[in-house]
Amino acid sequence: MQAIVLDAKWEPRNGAAISERDAARRWAPNANHAWRNPSMELHTVDDPSGPGPGELVVRIEACGICGSDVHMYETDDAGYMILPYHVACPVVVGHEFAGTVVAVGEGVTGFAEGSLVTVEEIQYCGACRACRGGYPNSCERIEDIGFTIDGGFAEYVRVPARAAWSLDPLLERYGSRERALEVGAMCEPVSVTYEGMFTRGGGFKPGGVVAVFGAGPIGLAGVALSAAAGASAVICVETVPERRALAERLGATHVVDPTKQDAVEAIDEISRGTGLAMAVEASGAWGAVMPVIDRSLGVGGKAVIVGMDPRSPTLELISYQLKAASIYGSVGHCGGWNFPNVINLMASGRIEMEHAITRRAGLADMVDAVRSMRDRTDGKILVKPGLQ
Q: What residues have CB less than 8 Å from 121, skipping those under 6 apart?
């Protein structure tokens, strides 16, 4: 089958925190500390073998390009992947996907050949201390589809059935198999934002003011979720005009270009001086964004960090103390009922993530699409293996 394969040179930086076990299997806890000179190319690889017990084989119908995929391809000045997340190479990338079940393993219930599904990226063990304590995204034996095990920029993928969720509610809403699958591919990124805002951050009281920093797909999900959850004002802070327009379509009541307007002053004016109930950092530009969040949170406000940046920002911690404010770190999408709740929100029309999809490409055009994302003008680009 055809697939997009990520490869790179294993060259850990001096002082990189990599265990002997991870070094032996070339599994980097932080790709920015170990993987150099990455390449991403279309290859012919073996089809996945038949499903084992508890597994499904899924034909990929749509797979979204994530900022993480771009950061695997982009490098810093020393040639290391920008992505500060775990990666094992070589690997078939792609973790935001939906497709059709084509084979069902022994013991699987709830799915049959022809079922439309989306799949959780994070593969947690369920047995370690983190998992048993309710933190599967911090699993001690974590693996990730599209990062450390083969993913969805391919024609087929084999996955655990426990990671799959039915897209029947979306099929009922849209009445179109193609549309249900495209929106279904948005479940993973929306669930990442949902995890940060509601499962980790505990949400905000309806009527509060929310600001989302960055209007890539994760930030656009934050805009839609904030509007659905009852924010009185949803502010999107974004430098790219095309993305500001997408944010307005998804529910932003105000958009701020921080290159032309002081974001702190704008937030203060919009909130009538009360500050933010919640700030969602989805830009990955912590050095520029965190000082604005420090100064813009209201009393009891929450900062949710969903974007990724290998560089550490300076925080004005006294402002958090004086305002009784909180910072919530969040990565991944597992926890509670994130995926099914997101599917329900989509199926009810409370969030309409189809508006975030700006382009579609075939597998052969995927790498060019990743290159084009450097200008950060698109919302979500979907790769569709059946698209010529």
A: 95, 96, 144, 145, 146, 147, 151, 188, 332, 333
Query: Does the active-site annotation cover 71?
Result: yes
The per-residue pLDDT for 189 is 96
Mean pLDDT of 237-266: 97
Alpha-carbon gap, residue 166 to 170, rounded angstroms = 9
CATH of 2-185+352-383, one of 3.90.180.10, 3.40.50.170, 3.40.50.2000, 3.40.50.300: 3.90.180.10
**Each residue's pLDDT tens digit, 31-52:** 999 999 999 999 999 999 899 9
**Omega cis (within 30) before 12:** no
Q: What is the mean pLDDT of residues 270-286?
A: 97
Q: Angle at the Cα of 250 (from 229 to 271), degrees rounded to 5?
A: 60
**68 catalytically annotated:** yes
May I ask the CATH class of domain 190-329?
alpha beta
Question: Could you report the per-residue pLDDT of 102-130, keeping only the tens digit for each?
Answer: 999 999 999 999 999 999 999 999 999 99
Selected catalytic residue, list 33, 71, 95, 333: 71
* Neighbour count for residue 266 (Cβ, 10 Å): 20
Residues of the chain with CATH 3.40.50.720: 190-329
Candidates 33, 43, 49, 68; catalytic one? 68
The model carries a pTM of 0.95
